Amino acid sequence: MTQTSRETPKHLFALAGNPNCGKTTLFNAITGACQHVGNYPGITVEKKEGFYSLNGRQIQLVDLPGTYSLTAYSLEELVARDFIVNERPEVVINIVDASNLDRNLYLTLQLLELGVPVVVALNMIDVAEGRGVRIHAEELSKRLGVPVVPTVARRGEGKESLLQAALETARSGARWEPLRISYGPDVDPVLSEMEKIIVENGFLTNLYPARWIALKYLEEDDQIKAKGRETNPSISEALEAIAAKLAQHIQKTLDSYPEAIIADHRYGFIAALLKDGVVEQRIK
Ligand code: GDP
Ligand code: MG
Known about the structure:
alpha/beta; 12 helices; about 50% helix; about 20% strand; binds guanosine-5'-diphosphate; binds magnesium ion
């Protein structure tokens, strides 16, 4: 260990957000000239990282690809999710577009379900305010259970408070704590059954929360299923069989499929979270 690294403890943070939420603008405002661009190993997705220091701490900041979710359907989403799971950043700074809040919170929910410590940058509040929309950040923070800091990335506003909040979260030793949301009477019991099998067998639980793995089997996530088969084929088969049975049941009774039910419940959760007291529409 060099003298410098002993004097300046290093932290790893990541920036996540939907495309066009202001992620690059914020990244540039934070890291200035201290950044470099490369690729993730073996693929053409751009990897941007930069550095900044705060309160005598050196922070390495990785700008994850812009994504709407953390599924395995696109390379960007896989890259973002794999980075979080494998590199274990101490904090994910999740930038959300305040002028398009409910839609942006879908990714936030994904991050919270994965369990990584999150600090939300409520960006573009100038745009929201221009439309007569006021968002009560403190109330949103209370309901999400994570810090929420209003920012206007284009003007650098809120940047200091955001970085302080992120550092405080890291220094408080925040641990991975996956959010559990209800997926309704059809899915919840099946999730519990799968979760039990996953926990009892330590099936991929060194990397992912048990309920999250169960959800991925229900969502037909190819990456997780492949990893599962590699790790323990018979447990993976058992989980796939349970998922297939639920899919059949949902097809028959609701003419739908598990993924759609799961997405509906996430949108429902966000709608309930935002109800009464977070978003205020002022008459202009
Ligand atoms: P990214 O796709 O998330 O990296 O988004 P960018 O950083 O490229 O920003 C998209 C657009 O939004 C750019 O034109 C930015 O100048 C603009 N922008 C970023 N932050 C803000 C903000 O807080 N307020 C306003 N009005 N515009 C912003
Ligand atoms: Mg960008």
